[in-house]
Automatic annotation (TrEMBL):
Gene3D superfamilies: 3.40.50.880. The lineage of its organism: Bacteria, Pseudomonadati, Pseudomonadota, Gammaproteobacteria, Alteromonadales. GO terms for molecular function: dipeptidase activity. InterPro entries: Class_I_gatase-like (IPR029062), Peptidase_S51 (IPR005320). This is Dipeptidase PepE. Its EC number is 3.4.13.21. It comes from the Bacteria. It comes from Shewanella metallivivens. It is an enzyme of class 3 (hydrolase).
Amino acid sequence: MTINALMLSASRVGDSDYLTHTIDLILPLTQPGQQWLFIPYAGVSVSYDEYLTKVQMALAPLPITINSIHQFADPKQAIQEAAGILVGGGNTFQLLNELYRYDLVHLIREKVQNGMPYVGWSAGSNITGASIRTTNDMPIIEPPSFTALNILPFQLNPHYTNYQMPGHNGETRAQRLLEFTIVDPLTPVIGIQEGSALWRQGDKLTLIGDQTAYLFHGKQQEVEIAANSDLSKYLK
């Protein structure tokens, strides 16, 4: 069994409907009749029931059944019995804190390393990196650790954009990631734009979608990565 994990930048592209652009990307990870488990812990301003319904409706074209971890008395058992895991967006700090609260970080990592398909978007993608130190979210809660699932042995920055509104004097995303690489020059950061994703299949990592990505690593800043590039070297 090998890792089969899809890290989507976002749940939407432009004005598209929720998760519609992800259907064709998620489909190859699924098999008809499977029971998948949704983890809604990143949802702060929406109830878990509402979040589940939203995801079920959006992903209805997939040949799977989706239940949520909050519906089970034993979250660990729910993960053990699932055929695949979906982790939604929201606040990354809240998501990781809840995973630590229920002691799920190591279990999810182990299951994914042993071949359980994993699909995340936004915060659900952020936690697949070595840590959540390059999330875009506000630290509304303090997890026991910033150490994440380490499905990818580097840092991920979903929703990447370096756009700066006229008259806005805050730091750009590139400046924020520069700060990270100054503090930690040895760890790469890959910023993925909306509409794109990283797909890890064992020792192979591919940038999929029609958007470029960007590398930040030491003195290499905002280096463009062409769409559909093979990024397997970053798994070494």
